[in-house]
Write a structure and sequence with these properties.
Length: 349
C-alpha cells in the first residue's frame, strides 16, 4: 500500500493512501478531515434565542441540494477518506426525503458512520425508520430539561416527546450526544438536573459555549459564559478527562465512575480549539465552508452538476483538494469576527 507523509509543526505523520483517488484530505497544518457536515436545509421550525429568535425568515427562493446532489458529494468525500457524515440543517427532519438521504449516504463505500443533528421534534415518530435506513449516531439539542425554560429558549413546547425520542435512541443502541448551549441566564439553574440526567443515561452531554454569529451580537454579549467554570466544577467533583482518539474533534469529554454517561465541553474560544479541527462543511445550497466562521462559502453547484451528469465525482475531488489549501489555521471568533455566518441554521453548527 502506498503511503505518504504530511508535515505538522512538530511531527511527521505517516498517512495511509485512501480511496481510489488516493489522496486523503489533509491541510497544510497537518489536520486530517475524515468528517463531513452536510446541511440539507436551512429551514427550521424552532426559534432558539441564540439562532433564529424571530423564527425562520425566508428572504429568497431556496434551491436546496437534492438527494442525488448530496449523494455525489458524499461519494466524492468518501473517496478522499471521509468516514463520517453528519446530516444537519436548519432542521434536517423537515426534509421529506431525509430517510432516503440517510440510506443513500450509509450505502456509500467507505462511510462508516451516518449521524444527524436534530432538534428532535420528529424523533419519536421517525427515529426507527432513520435507524433502519442506516443512521448510527444522534446529536440531539436539549438546552434545558425544564419544559418551561425549554419553551422559553427554543419557542417549542414538545420537550416530553423529544425526551421520549431520546429514550428510544438509547434503547436502539445509537451513539447519542445531547447538546446544550451554555446560557448565563439558564445554565446555573440547570446544572443539577443535567448531572442527574447523565448519572443514569449512557449518553454524552455536551455543553456548547455560545458562539457569536452575524445576527446575535447583543444576545451573545448578554448571555455568553465560558465552559471553563463547568470544567473546574467537573474536576472538583472527581471527573477526569477522557483520552481523545487520534483524529477526534475539538470537544473535551469527561468521565466519572459513578456516572453512566459522560460530560463534554465545546469551547470554541479556548486556545488551540482549532488544532483538532477534523471537519469540512457543505451548506444546503451547495457551498463548501472550510470553517464554520469562514469569510465565505465556496460555490460547488456547477461542479456538482457536472459530476452528476458524468456519474463520476472526480471533478469535485480535484476541486475540493485544491480549495483545502485555503483553509486557515484558526477562526477569529475571539476578535468578534464571525465571517459569513449570520446564524448557525445556515450551516448546521
Ligand atoms: N436544528 C438542529 C438542532 O438544533 O440540533 C441542527 C442545526 S443547529 C444549528 C446545530 C447545533 O448548533 C445545535 O446543537 C444548536 O444548539 C447549536 N447552535 C446554534 N446556534 C449556536 C450558537 N450561536 N452558539 C452555539 N451553538 C449554537
Ligand atoms: Fe433551529 Fe437548531 Fe437553530 Fe434551534 S439551533 S433555531 S433548532 S436550527
Amino acid at each position: 500500500m502506498n503511503t505518504f507523509s504530511t508535515q505538522t509543526s512538530s511531527q511527521t505523520i505517516p498517512v495511509k493512501n485512501v480511496g481510489e483517488q488516493g489522496v486523503p484530505l489533509i491541510d497544510k497544518f497537518g489536520r486530517r478531515f475524515e468528517y463531513l457536515r452536510l446541511s440539507i436545509t436551512d429551514v427550521c421550525n424552532f426559534s432558539c434565542q441564540y439562532c433564529l429568535p424571530d423564527g425562520y425568515q425566508c428572504d429568497s427562493p431556496r434551491n436546496f441540494l437534492s438527494s442525488d446532489e448530496c449523494n455525489i458529494l458524499v461519494r466524492a468525500f468518501a473517496k478522499m477518506g471521509t468516514k463520517k457524515v453528519r446530516i444537519t440543517g436548519g432542521e434536517p427532519s423537515l426534509r421529506n426525503d431525509l430517510t432516503s438521504i440517510i440510506k443513500q449516504t450509509a450505502e456509500v463505500q467507505g462511510i462508516e458512520q451516518v449521524a444527524i443533528t436534530t432538534n428532535g421534534y420528529k424523533l419519536e415518530k421517525e427515529l426507527r425508520q432513520w435507524v433502519d435506513a442506516g443512521l448510527t449516531s444522534l446529536n440531539l439539542s436539549i438546552d434545558s430539561l425544564d419544559p418551561r425554560q425549554f419553551q422559553q429558549i427554543t419557542g417549542d413546547g414538545r420537550l416530553q416527546s423529544i425526551l421520549k425520542g431520546l429514550e428510544l435512541a438509547i434503547e436502539l443502541n445509537l451513539q447519542v450526544k445531547v447538546n446544550a448551549v451554555l446560557l448565563k441566564e439558564f445554565s446555573e439553574s440547570q446544572l443539577a438536573l443535567f448531572f442527574d440526567f447523565v448519572k443514569s443515561n449512557n449518553i454524552t452531554l455536551r455543553f456548547i459555549e455560545l458562539m457569536q454569529t452575524g445576527d446575535n451580537e447583543a444576545f451573545f454579549n448578554a448571555q455568553h459564559i465560558s465552559g471553563a467554570s463547568i470544567e473546574d466544577k467537573l474536576l472538583e467533583l472527581g471527573w477526569s478527562l477522557k483520552q481523545k482518539a487520534q483524529w477526534a474533534g475539538p470537544a473535551k469529554v469527561y468521565k466519572h465512575a459513578d456516572y453512566l454517561g459522560r460530560i463534554g465541553l465545546i469551547m470554541p474560544y479556548s486556545k488551540d480549539f482549532c488544532a483538532d479541527c477534523n471537519r469540512l462543511r457543505i451548506s444546503s445550497l451547495g457551498k463548501l465552508h472550510l470553517c464554520l466562521f469562514a469569510e465565505k462559502g465556496i460555490e460547488l453547484r456547477d461542479t456538482i452538476a457536472k459530476c452528476l451528469a458524468e456519474d463520476d465525482p472526480s471533478k469535485l475531488i480535484s476541486e475540493i483538494q485544491h480549495l483545502l489549501g485555503q483553509k486557515e489555521a484558526t477562526h477569529y471568533l475571539d476578535a468578534g469576527y464571525t465571517g459569513a455566518t449570520q446564524h448557525l441554521a445556515m450551516l448546521g453548527g
